[in-house]
């Protein structure tokens, strides 16, 4: 019919050609509850997922040459919360963890991450991210998906983690407690994930006065053109998946009771970070 | 005295008399037809508009709901249920007129129901009362706050009607009140979503394609029937067969789209509306920008309601010949 339909068909063919047997088969093998039009209730579409898988797969394998350890700890089915450290100014750590769960285990797993509330107001991102399985970060969405036995990725450090300056690399910021309440309420095991490499993808300092002026949480500056972090450096990513941790207790307990449990997760990530940094010989390979 | 004790004695002898407001509207006629086919009910209409293709055995009161004559419909005390769907959505009417008709009219009707002991009241609200917002969770439950008026005052009436009805739900304990909040109703009805989907090309906002829920007009009538069951009371979201992106609905209908960048769309359509070139109120652009979807699990569990039409049938319903 129109130009857009023609473009869409061309794109579809191009994607199918480049997808390769492995990624193509994985896209088809992915289990999700789609309706007669191929969309699930959160806006995930299998055809859109192909494009995402192609792009993310290239970033994962060719750009960051990611090395994943402890892949056997990614459960093949059932509800799970991946809890990871957040860093590097740009949210590529989410892309890489998602790709690892999609590309590494025998049965591909779709990991949904929770996006910020402003994303639905941004043109294109507003619908592309949901098409790729990402959801608006509200506790209701998270609870509902966990009850449907899905896998969710959370960064309890949030903006504190991703926007911290290079001088505080690999120092975990304070963790939010929300993820633990959800895990307790839904009986979800927590798989801790340590991400190594993301910190060096955009070594930044924070221009605090400018951030305050713009009302943004931070204003990062990198020492190379274009001086704002837009494209990450081609660092080598190393992922460490830990054994699943199961917690029991009342999700409505006081903060200090929950903090003990959260600290256990944080320590687990911290020790994997130390191990990974010891094993790492070079930032770029 | 609960409705459970009262109902059997009256039901055995004769049909339940149901008064439907807004019966002359398209949706009103769909609901009236569903009830008319059901031997348990005796339908009466209450609408200030005439009811042209009225079946012989439907009594129609062509009066304003705010008038004294409307009270007479209830005075005899033999009304068994009120289905209230006579709301005015005309975007060209003055706010005062809309308020007086919608909120004033609803309060009056509920006052009669309490005064003359009507045992069942069904109010057709809308899932739009929650409001499309970027922070919305994917599925809103019945407990979610009604925030539609936050972004556009034109919705204030609908939100207030819902509040008036929920206040009545708590106040009139002898009446079983059911508030239904259906998602976008599609069909031959002339409501905003159906009118919008009948445009060609359909204006959309560039870079936005929210998930939407739709329901067939006949499924809404079915939900009203479920709500009329003795003993049913409460507030229920009413959902159709599923969720789809707006673009898929448009493609299914074979329409062209007219993508407009959103900073331009508002002023452009506000001007067109003022000049009478468009009948689409700009405030409603948020409905094609953000999600406003609801969880219909409670209606399924407690009312036993489940949409019958498939997604494809529901979407195609806007093009059904009238």
> Average pLDDT across residues of chain A?
89
- Oligomeric state of the chains in view: heterodimer
Q: Considering DSSP H and I runs of 4 or more, what fraction of the residues of chain B is helical?
A: 25-40%
- N-end to C-end Cα span of chain A: 48 Å
CATH topology of chain B: Rossmann fold
Q: What is the name of the CATH topology of chain A? A: Glycerol-3-phosphate (1)-acyltransferase
Describe the strand arrangement of the main beta sheet of chain A, using strand numbers.
1-9-6-2-5-3-4
Count structural domains of chain A: 1
> Could you give the order of strands across the largest sheet of chain B?
3-2-1-4-5-6-10
Describe the structure.
The complex is a heterodimer of chains A (285) and B (322). With 285 residues, chain A is an alpha/beta fold. Chain A has 9 helices and 9 strands. Chain A has one domain: Glycerol-3-phosphate (1)-acyltransferase, CATH 3.40.1130. Helices cover 41% and strands 12% of the residues of chain A. Chain A is globular and about 55 Å long. Chain B is of the alpha/beta class. Chain B has one domain (3-319): 3-Layer(aba) Sandwich (Rossmann fold). Helices cover 38% and strands 17% of the residues of chain B. Chain B is built from 12 helices and 12 strands. In chain B, the strands form 3 sheets. A 7-stranded parallel β-sheet of chain B has the order 3-2-1-4-5-6-10, with helices on both faces. In chain B, strands 7-9-11 form a 3-stranded mixed β-sheet. Chain B is globular and about 55 Å long. Residues 1-12 of chain B have low confidence and may be disordered. The interface between A and B is medium-sized, with 29 and 31 residues.
